[in-house]
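TICKET #2291
ISSUE: user wants both folds in one file
ATTACHMENT 1:
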Amino acid sequence: MAYQPDYPFPRLEDGQTLEVADGVHWIRMPLPFALDHINLWLLADGDGWTVIDTGYNSAATRDIWKQVLDGIAGGGAPARVICSHFHPDHMGLAGWFAAEFGASLWMTYSEWLQAHLARSRQLTHDFKRWDEFFVENGASAQNTDGFRTFLSRLDEPWYSIPQTVRRIRDGEDILIGDHTWRVITGGGHTHEHASLWCAGRDILISGDQILPRITSNISLWYTEPEGDPLGDYLESFAKFGAISDRTLVLPSHGYPFRGVHGRIGELRDHHEARLETALAVCAEPRTADEVIPFLFDRDIGPDDYSFAIGETLAHLNRLVSAGRLERRRSADGLIRYRRP
């Protein structure tokens, strides 16, 4: 029988909140991207509050947070922010929470470092080097120009980040109120993404690692051209094996749902189908750019191009790691993939 997720709650509009379990509040926040929203979580924590992910660093998000805290927390100040990973929609306001409320930041150490690098736009976020990486994988000037135009529209600083962090680790138990939450880290979407599982309450805050309707972007980065992020992502699913299908999953995008193992099965099948398509396409040498139209059934615009080529490269490198494709630089300087 086909997987049928259970969605127990209605859609929220931007700025709305809903208590999905005792002391666990769902907050929907707007985003200035094609993916136009993020789900954030406010948890009762004894006499205070813990925030799970912060939202994007924008005036609109800050204003909504003030209204939410006045309404739900009675003006109370959150003492702690736990961020699942470094992307700006998830931790863009961590520094604001620290400055405004004195909240400490908890997250995995490598994700905290990545956020600082992203804010500096150096090393892992050198966009000139991103351009060069796209070009050597077949990107046209139109696509790289479009990528730069997309970035230039993001006027506000992406991040406000504290200079200190309380490091969390895979398998660590964190007490929030009277309940213990287990940290589950996973790679692929980012290097050390953290989900939180409360076995006693049958609740999983999955972040971007498991989403109910869309697939998390799994991209190859120019800093690790021979990496295998898709392999890391698929391997991470084993860590969720002890979670029951009755568990309420609280994802960062879409709706809370039940049926985590059915969804993991769907995600595995989705990526396996893409891998088989990429393998067939590369019967003759192909750049990643040439493979994109075979993996995506929609037009890819400038806002989507970096995600599309990054995800295409992740699938191609998964096949290289499995010995099913070869990756070679041609005489024209372009990197091409082909079956051995």
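ATTACHMENT 2:
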Amino acid sequence: MPVLNIAILGSQELCRSIGKLTDSRDVESYVFKEGAGPDRRILSLIRPLNFPERIRPLLSALNVADYGIIEVNSIDAALGESMVAFSSSGIEHGDLIINPKDGAWIDPDKVNLVKHEAGLRSWNVHHQMPDLNEYRTVLLRQVEKQNSVGELLVSIDQHFVVKGIGLVGIGYVRSGVLARHDNVKIYPKKANGIVRSLQVMDDDVDRALTGDRVGIALRGVSDDSLDKGSQIVSEESNLLIRSEKSHLTVAISVFQNKTPQAGDVIHMSFDLQFFVGRIESIEENTMVVNWDRPIDLRTTFDKPPLLVQLDAGPMRIIGPVSNIQMV
């Protein structure tokens, strides 16, 4: 089922006008389905909660999103940081919807200036809230058939045990195809299991494709095999590399006033994981990072990992990582 995953910074009212609320944790999930069978198209909105106070939910949404929406209530540091975050995540298409608070006025020219500086040149700017029925139709036109190439990788953000079924993980297929009865391996615990059944958007399916929000019932594994940020790959896969140190090439973001230095603690957000490390050395846009624990990471990707400094507000985004070499 073709799906468009949309990271949205906007009001509940805007989200509810597009889709139905299906989940609420660190992020809220809204879903709209049109059509049936192989012709069904799905909009999946991922709304991070408590931004700008907390940036991690936004980073998780950006990890899996292909499209972006930002509701512009004011022009401030949080708007600049959010635009840089979307740009650094490689989200090339999206909408900025101007909707000022309490009857105030926002200059569209200033919004355009900030979006260009932040790297969102191809995004649309709506000078007012669009007709939301028409807007949903426009979003549905962005839904494309999934390109499920590459090795299997599923990133997990929720897990629980169901009586009579066993361990269930919820997450996103980041690449490849997952099928019922597949033999899989779960990282970081390196547990082997078998896919018992699959659900995509509450529908039982035989296969889950790249981009799908999937529920996976597993057998042959212990109840503690999954954690938030666990990665599922094919049993014989060598996609993930374990290391305690990495050489990273990063493009320092615009609006960043705090230059990373040796000794700084940084975080990296990738595939619904959040790694903590310390910079051992840095030269121009290349740094060596020691992680606080061994990490399992793929080193080839279409959507870049993001480096952040949590103490570097108001611009916590260091920038996107273009190259990773594990040591």
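RESOLUTION: both attachments delivered.
EXTRA DETAIL ON ATTACHMENT 2: The mean pLDDT is 95.
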